[in-house]
Amino acid sequence: MDTASPIGNSLHSQLAHLQQLAALQPPDYATRQRWLAGLASMVTAHQQDWIDALQADFGCRSAVETRLAELFPSLEGIRLAQRKLGRWMRAQRRGVSFWFWPATARVLPQPLGVAGIIVPWNYPVFLALGPLTSALAAGNRAMVKMSELSPHSGALLQKLCRQYLGDDVVQVVNGDVAVAQAFAALPFDHLLFTGSTRVGRSVMQAAAANLTPVTLELGGKSPVLIAPGFDMRRVAASLIAGKMLNAGQTCVAPDYVLVHQDDRDALLAELRRQAALAYPDPAANPDYTAIINQTHYDRLLRWRDEAAQMGAQVEVLAAGSSEAALAAARKLPLTLIDNAPAHSTVMREEIFGPLLPIVTYDKLGNALAYINGRDRPLALYLYDDNRRRIRTVLQGTVAGGVSVNDTLMHVVQDQLPFGGVGPSGMGHYHGYEGFATFSKMKPVFYQSRFAGTVLTQPPHGKLVQWLLNLMLGRIK
């Protein structure tokens, strides 16, 4: 988009204001702690406001899920930053080579300036406050672009940021795709985008014009690998919880399952049982979240029906809800898709909904080859109790993150970095890695008064030649 447009001019003006403030003295420890306390108050003092906003955005958003998957992890990330901030801000001592003794070296963390954060609609609280925590802890100002598909959450974040932080610290931008395009083209000091791989490519292109460094948190098809003979009851309970959270509208949701051919029937039976227990009558169940809008609902139905037409066995686990009631509520129950062709859409594209393809394998090596033959995923889920086999899988695959014997849990460990690899993203945040992402880790070399390097200064004579021979190992 033309950055000289009225939208572009307005955003540039907002950014310029924050850049002027960022150019002043970097915020000290007390200021950053005050900012983090403001973020924490936005969570703790407004729980019902967030629940209501997300309910309005989704049509039906489980209040339990909002508290469990948005407010709690946001607050935990803030609490960690508050506890660790002093240590993170300290200069880090680094070693110097023997040849440069007695000089010393340090790495000094400094704020970059102004961070841009582009937030998706699926977890608008957590995916706004998580990056904000990292950016503010590192001493930056920030501009946040909220999704047009979650306008109520965007309006609430804008209101609360003004109330607790002020426009001199964080500015929240709401608007359509044109606003998002203009936002991505701004000359931020760092830009973090969370969303689809397709849009991520466009964001990276826009940022490249300004040489803006980017962190891309994308998605992809995150596999579940079940070791032969594993307890299918254990698998099904955690798999249902991870797949059906937010109705599968999660970037790290289990996308497809690899199960040994001898265990397939047991897995399907347990998934049927656990789905009925977890979400009876999903159409009327307030704990089961709706699909965000009709466009996404129709997309999922289209992909499901395509798989069936191609010969896959499709089973909708509606557990007491009629098709009409589900459509009226924009609810889609867990849907098992067994034996879908490799060229079907559900086997090629990130699903982002409660469709669950089942793929069987005969040997573990073939399962690993299946995973490695596809784009590197944002998450990998392994169910196994054999340590040697776990090590084989971890060493033999590449993924953004891994949970063993559960799903999603690695994402909410704030002392683990979160990020993708290749098509599933680049860069990390959460915890210290988030602080480092939004900091310039400035290397500083301190020369000693009695520096041996004076011996190598010109004019170069025989002493320098002798020293070089010694340094390069030619003198034994």
Question: What this model shows, in words?
Answer:
The protein has 476 residues and is α/β, with parallel strands linked by helices. Helices cover 44% and strands 16% of the residues. The protein has a 7-stranded mixed β-sheet with strand order 10-11-12-9-8-13-14, with helices on both faces. Strand 8, helix 9 and strand 9 (254-260) form a beta-alpha-beta unit. It is globular and about 85 Å long. The model has no long low-confidence stretch (mean pLDDT 95).
Describe the protein's topology.
Blueprint: H1 6-22, H2 29-44, H3 47-58, H4 63-89, E1 92-94, E2 104-111, E3 114-118, H5 126-137, E4 141-145, H6 151-164, E5 170-173, H7 177-184, E6 190-194, H8 197-208, E7 214-217, E8 222-226, H9 232-244, E9 254-260, H10 264-278, H11 294-309, E10 313-316, H12 323-329, E11 335-338, H13 345-348, E12 355-361, H14 364-372, E13 380-383, H15 387-396, E14 402-404, E15 425-426, H16 431-437, E16 439-446, H17 462-471
Parallel strand pairs: 3-4, 3-6, 4-5, 6-7, 8-9, 8-13, 9-12, 11-12, 13-14
Antiparallel strand pairs: 1-2, 2-16, 7-15, 10-11
